[in-house]
Amino acid sequence: MSWIQLTIRTEQDRAEAIGDSLSELGAQAVTFVDAKDTPVYEPKPGEVHYWPNTEVIGLFDAEDDTDIVIAALQNDFGQQQPLAYTLNPLEDKDWEREWMDNFHPIQFGKRLWICPSWRDIPDPDAVNVMLDPGVAFGTGTHPTTALCLRWLDSLDLTDKTVVDFGCGSGILGIAALKLGAKRVIGIDIDPQALEASQANAERNGVGDQIELYLPENQPQFEADVVVANILAGPLRELQSVITDYCHPVGVLALSGILVEQAEEIEQLYARDFILEPVQTEGDWAMVSGFKK
Known about the structure:
The protein is built from nine helices and 15 strands. Strands 8, 9, 10, 11, 12, 13, 14 and 15 form an eight-stranded mixed beta sheet that branches. A four-stranded antiparallel beta sheet has the order 2-3-1-4, with helices on one face. A three-stranded mixed beta sheet has the order 5-6-7. It has two domains: 3-92, Alpha-Beta Plaits (2-Layer Sandwich), CATH 3.30.70.120; 135-291, Vaccinia Virus protein VP39 (Rossmann fold), CATH 3.40.50.150. By secondary structure, the chain is an alpha/beta fold. 29% of the residues lie in helices and 31% in strands. It catalyses: L-lysyl-[protein] + 3 S-adenosyl-L-methionine = N(6),N(6),N(6)-trimethyl-L-lysyl-[protein] + 3 S-adenosyl-L-homocysteine + 3 H(+). Belongs to the methyltransferase superfamily. PrmA family. Pfam families: PrmA. Its EC number is 2.1.1.-.
């Protein structure tokens, strides 16, 4: 099948309404793309934030009459100023194969590899975590996850208990277990994340070493290692909760932080931790240290 891609450049307050209209007008898929490489700061649960300059992209069957689609959109959204749009044909491809070809085994630190299932393992003697890209829960490709994976690889985790706060896909907790930890406690507000973590842990042969909880159901405990790859807002709001997870002389890593937010997070956690130099990758930072 051949496709036509209709791209509309707009402002954040109209992006969702235009996306809804594209769906109603027959778009097979609608996506939202940052038009100016602008970071979006953390939303609260249930919120959806768009970029100040957003491209709304609708994918249509090439046989659809896009003139009708554009006329309808101009009538609804372009009365004061005509909508800026482009139309581009897309070649017919095996999109699933194209998507799979973009994911390769990635090494983090000296020992650890994250490997998708359809690729050969580069080093059978390394610590290999098998994890396929899923629905946004984390696969190691984002700098915040990469910073945490390299940090875990640098530790001696033998027989340690680890808290993975905001566990998502379970990638950090599973990596910790494969690196020698004896027990991981994963916590997330999303029940689907807990299901993904359990499935991925079982696939990697460590399902019986991971315990998963919603925040309201978690027991009291202290851990040797705490890693929280979430966002600056929750790290601020839950500072006392996250600190209490870590027992004296335990170690902590906090990520999901933009570089310009790192100093504030450092100041909050310096009350209870001896902090190491901030590590960065691109626009993102990780704060880590030892509990006093």
